[in-house]
Structures are given as C-alpha cells and as structure tokens.
Amino acid sequence: MKVAIIGGGLTGLSAAYYMGKAFPNWEIHVLESSNRWGGKVQTKRRDGYVVEVGPDSYLARKTSMTDLVQELGLGDTLVRNATGESYIYHQGQMKPIPGGSIIGIPTEFLPFAMSSLLSWFGKLRAGLDIFKKPYPGNEDMSIDAFFRYHLGDELVNLLIEPLLSGIYGTKAWKFGQRYDGYARYAQTIWGGYRRTICPINGRFRIISRCSCGTNAKERFFAHID
User: Fold this and answer.
1) pTM for this structure?
2) pLDDT in tens, 32-41
3) What's the burial of 161, exposed, middle or buried (CB within 10 Å: 0-12/13-18/19+)?
C-alpha cells in the first residue's frame, strides 16, 4: 500500500508517524511544498534571543503530546515555565500577564486590577461583564466575538488574542465552537456560559477544579527547546 500525505506540518508528520506504527509495511510519502518541515511551527534566533514565529508551546495537560515527545526520545528537551511568570510585549515594554489568568481570562481580582498591561478603562470594561446579558450570537459563535462582547476589545487584543495565537498559530476569530483543535477549550467556556448568567464566573469554577496547586502555572504550558 502506498500512501501520500499532503503537508509536512505537525499534523502531516504526526499522521505519517502513527500510520507508520500501525502499518509498518506501508510505503508512506509526506509531500511538502516549502523547503522545510514543521509548517507553522518555526523558530528564529536573532540578537541572542529565541523567537517563536508560530505556536510557541502546547497545553501540558494534553498528555498525548507529552507522551509523543517522550516516545520520540525528546523528553529531556521539554521546557516549562518554572517561574510562573509570562510577559507580553506592549508599547515598547515587557508587561507581565496578570496573575491567575488562564489563556488570558482573568480569574483573580487583585492581580487583574493591579496589572500594568491594561488601562483602567479596559479593566472597567471587562468588569462590566457581570452585568452583561448572554451573548446574542448563534450557537457557533467565534471565540473572538464571544469575548469581545463580554470582556471588551482591549482585553481580547492584549491578552486573549496573543496567547491563543501563540498556542494555535492563528487568530481567535477563526475559532468557533465546532473547531476540532479548539473543541475542549471552547466546550469548557460554553459549558460555564450556559450554566450561569456571567460566563466568566462559570469559567472561574471550572478553573478552580483543574488548576490548583502551587505549580499549576508551571504545568500549564510546555514547549520543546
């Protein structure tokens, strides 16, 4: 059996790897139009810094990715954020992400209120979510539209959008509830949204059950050095 896989990005390479394991006698060819493998995953080094051009990490709680890394013998190259500190470059400065934020969604009041990343107007606009009615869009609303309605443009532009782009390598407006690669995250948000008047409060309760412990931030993201 001869098989051709179109595209040498993470999906194509993973498909070839697992197909080869399942059918060792098959002849598998991966076709890539560019002169490099990896698709959107690309690393550049400039002026002593390592810059991830595409996705820079993955969610460590998705153990299938970690299992694959270990299986490929790359376990020693896994890097996690041991400090729990992350930054976003804004207005010529490195601004710390508010403590307690989960993929840009604030879960603790004081760190969010004291953040230097957002203006007071942006913080107030996000806080007004508690008075907002449920999002009026259709069932397959985009993540971008959902959070802009509830939390405002500034928080989406400075927190949610950069973090989601770093993980998934694309824009938040492209993600809907039915997008497979985003299904778990979207379903978690929509679940909280359906159970409570304030969707973010629903999200808080879900987060409190899955990200407890002193090393929760360290475990949340991982990437290969």
Assistant:
1) 0.60
2) 999 999 988 8
3) buried
